[in-house]
Amino acid sequence: MSINLELTDKKAPISDEIRISTRDLSLYYGDFQALRNITLDILENAITAIIGPSGCGKSTFLRLFNRMNDLITGVRVEGSVELDGVNIYDKDIDVVELRKRVGMVFQKPNPFPMSVFENVAFGPKRHGRKNRMELEDIVEKSLKQAALWDEVEDKLGQSALALSGGQQQRLCIARVLAVEPEVILMDEPCSALDPIATLRIEDLMRSLAENYTIVIVTHNMQQAARASDMSAFFMMEDDRAGILVEYGPTEKLFTNPEDKRTEDYITGRFG
Amino acid sequence: MKTSISPRQISQRMAFTLLIAATAIVVIPVIVIIVQIVVNGAGAITWEFLSQSPMQAGKAGGIFPAIVGTFYLMLGTIIVALPLGILAGIYLSEYARDNWLTRTVNLAIVNLAGVPSIVYGLFGLGVFVLMFHFGMSLLAASLTLACQALAMTVTTSREAILTVPREYREGSLAVGATRWQTIWNVVLPQARPGIITGAVLAMSRAAGETAPILVVGAAFFLPGLPQSPLDQFMALPYHLYTVAAHVPGISKTTIWGVALVLLVVVLSFNVLATIIRLRARKRRYST
Hints:
The complex is a heterodimer of chains A (271) and B (287). Chain A is α/β, with parallel strands linked by helices and 271 residues long. Chain A has helices at 58-62, 95-101, 116-126, 132-145, 149-152, 165-177, 195-208, 221-227, 250-255, 260-266, and strands at 18-29, 32-43, 47-51, 75-83, 86-87, 102-105, 183-187, 213-217, 230-236, 242-249.
């Protein structure tokens, strides 16, 4: 399929620098093929939404970018994923260093059962930052970036589990920001949140997109249409392997899709 | 509405009655044992009984060295069995691949719990007492009981580590923590209550064992407390066995008294384990 990078004038123009590119990417769980020949370029400082029906491999695809699938036994990857031109599936890649550069926010808010402060300082501490003053600066900066500082400024020492779901998710975003990544992966970050908390996360994503490359998996079509610059539509083939059907600017994909299957899905005619 | 009882309700009542009866039958012996020991043994419990050495083969004096010996034994057992148990638990839950070797190891650990305790005793006699020349000693006995306790510390550590939700591990790895940093900073703190519960139960079991220590270092009477790990020691269960079986003319109250002290030591550790578990559960759900 062709990748249409034509930009509509309704959204602010985005960079055409390629940050991540996948080439003929396939993934297998044992004998089962979960993803088939996916070739796609993620643009720098853009929000890229990955949409599609349940089970089409969206999350699996996202988890390729920080090699989170490595944790699952029996996973085999073919093809390449390049981050700034380097294949992250090469043998000599340091996965820990990769995950520092490519952070991830999960479906269910997963703050650690520690204080708000310790949650945000967790990453920097693991990377050897021990100076208390320095950590305080990092925590404040990250919480401000995640639009959470005003709400937790006076409860940094309290348990993160006492926060609301939406606050917990923004805390998890702050935890990722604290290690200064370049790319942020979000795996259905709002699926456990109410509509107001969801809108706050979307606002946050927009402001973060100025400095970060964001890839988000979402079930929510309005969310993809509202919050993303680029959209990729995935679906399953007959053998349940996920394929990329169409990829392009969100505006175009939602108003004038090229593929009949995309149109059927976004207009709700999908079986 | 009819007031007569339908056959369905009758069978329901019969089932309930049966279940209650079965539960009662399980509980009654426990209550009877505890009541009997408390009623018969309470009379023996005096400050002298708890703080003095035995005299006249246990007929007079107290059981202080046996109490101390039992605590030493519990301590010695757990010092060996807990670190090994945690390390093996981490390996088995976090690192070991699912292959025939791991499955064999897991099977071996489960079977470790099923080995009769006297067999551990003979193993300890052969290996620690004779081969390593530790002699009949607190050290040999602790190591022997530690081997037995490993089944429990490894299993409970592994289970406690496995119950830590995957989300926490992923959250940690996703900010670039290494696997070991994830285990040390996120997984172990959350698994701690489960690990400690297993350790405390292992200690309470070590306190109650008689057969293994019989052959690796327990003595019926010693003039003083053990001064080093290589000394012999007295222990409550062995003392109880000896006064009950081999000291003619001893007062029944004294025997029950020893049993009561042993029971209190073992039960208090079990209660402690329960409290730790309940507190951890409460903390997990009250956010």
